[in-house]
Amino acid sequence: MKKVLLATTALALSAGVAYAEVSISGSANLGMKYDGGAAATASKTTAHSDVSLSFGGSVETDGGLTLSASTTLLNTNNGATGNDGTTVSVSGMGATLSMGSVTSADKQGGLADIGLKGIGIDNVAEDFDGPTSHNAGFTYSSGALSFSVSTLVGGKGGAAHTVAAAATKGESYAVGAKYTFGSSYIGVGMNSDDMVSGVTTAADGDTTSIYAGTSMDAFSINAMYSSFDSEVAGAAKQSSQGINVAYTTGAATISFGFSDKDTNTAGEKSVYGAGVSYDLGGGAALKAGVGKIRNAATTTKTVADLGVSFSF
Q: Collapsing DSSP states into helix, strand and coil, what is residue 198?
């Protein structure tokens, strides 16, 4: 996301702040969406628009520590504006401690989605890895290696693999590591969820994930595999996997995505899709995607979107 610097101010305070920096950036999308599985009473084709604004600020102490804060506001289809993530962190000497909207530490890679806002091709492969976010995390990087831990401190249980508030407390933690070499990487992670204390649910258990990716000239490829071991007595292990391949030629990037999940349910379907992004210059791109995603465990539906995305 292209950042526009609002202010850079030198401060001379006895508290020891060397400088302060504030920035704002944003992105927006407009276009159309198609849902072939929409209810008979709903339209299959709908208009889409959204605006995301991100605000950030940082200061550096005389001792070399950097304190940072960021928050993002999102408004979709002229609806209510909501908090799309707020994080406060302190970093120095390769280490960062973060609070707020913290990415689960086992997410050491991932898959890009297809289309304007994403039609959901990656969701199936990423269903078993950690929650959308924890509220505390620590990362240390040294050269090509990085290590991360994260957890849900004082949080509440909720729906599967989320940190949505519920009536009883829950636990979730994750660890991960990533090694980068040239334009390639490999990452591993483990996440453990007990989202409602004292109650065993289908979402409770341990997930181990492996991520890898590389780029070669005009090609890039990313893949992942997750294995989920449920705490439910007698439940069989489940797994998910996915891959995304992209090729850039001139101003156009063509991509293909595939995901599959084995939940030991008969007749399950894989999901797949293809998309294109054409760079219009100035931070804008024309994007389109079409694919088949799950409408239920045993059926799929056609989804698509088309529109313009831009950042500022």
A: coil
Element (H, E) at 213: strand 205-216
State the 10-residue block means of pLDDT for the chain, 312 residues long. Answer: 38 46 97 94 97 97 96 97 96 97 94 94 86 87 97 63 49 94 97 75 86 97 95 86 97 97 74 97 98 81 97 96
* Residue ranges of domains in the chain: 3-311
- DSSP annotation of 250: T
Consecutive H or E run containing 152: none
Q: 268: burial class by Cβ within 10 Å (0-12, 13-18, 19+)?
A: middle
Q: What is d(CA 162, CA 237) in angstroms, rounded to the nearest whole number?
A: 20
**How many Å apart are CA 306 and CA 274, to the nearest integer?**
12
Label residue 176 exposed, middle or buried (CB < 10 Å: 0-12, 13-18, 19+). Answer: buried
Give residue 77's region: left, alpha or beta (phi > 0; psi -120 to 50).
left
Residues 86/100, Cβ–Cβ less than 8 Å: yes
Task: Give the whole-angstrom CA distance, residue 50 versus residue 74.
Answer: 7
- Under CATH, what is the fold of the domain 3-311? Porin (2.40.160)
CB atoms within 10 A of CB 63: 8
Buried b (16+ CB within 10 A) or exposed e, 15-32: eeeeebbebebbbbbebe
Residue listed under structure tokens 């999940």: 261
Percentage helix, strand, coil for the chain under 3-state DSSP, each rounded to 5: 0, 65, 35
**pLDDT at residue number 7:** 37
Helix and strand element counts for the chain (H, E): 0, 17
Within 13 A of 270's CA, how many CA atoms are on the CB side? 10
Residue 8 confidence (pLDDT):
36
Token pair of 8 as six digits? 């850079």
